[in-house]
Design brief:
The protein is mostly helical. The termini are far apart. 81% of the residues lie in helices and 0% in strands. It has helices spanning 4-43, 52-74. The radius of gyration is 28 Å and the shape is elongated.
Length: 78
């Protein structure tokens, strides 16, 4: 087991295994990215909520936060 040929064969098989694993992981990563692209494209550019009322509620919440921040900046107690 200590002869140079067996060490070289083990090293080459280890490198080959790492290359195969890296290629498989890369293909999986690319597949996952493509899946996410298709998922985003199927939404049609919609935001996090699909319901129109969800968007209105979110905008109203943001407006209320802005009012509170402006009041804090002006020094007014709520």
């Amino acid at each position: 087991m200590t002869d140079p040929v067996s060490i070289a064969v083990m090293g080459a098989s280890l490198v080959a295994t790492l290359v195969i694993a890296a290629i498989a992981l890369l293909k999986g990563w690319r597949g996952w990215l493509e899946y996410k692209r298709l998922e985003l494209a199927s939404r049609g550019g919609a935001g996090p909520s699909h319901a129109p009322t969800g968007g209105r509620i979110e905008i109203a919440d943001l407006k209320e936060r802005v009012r509170k921040l402006e009041a804090i900046a002006a020094g007014i107690e709520l």
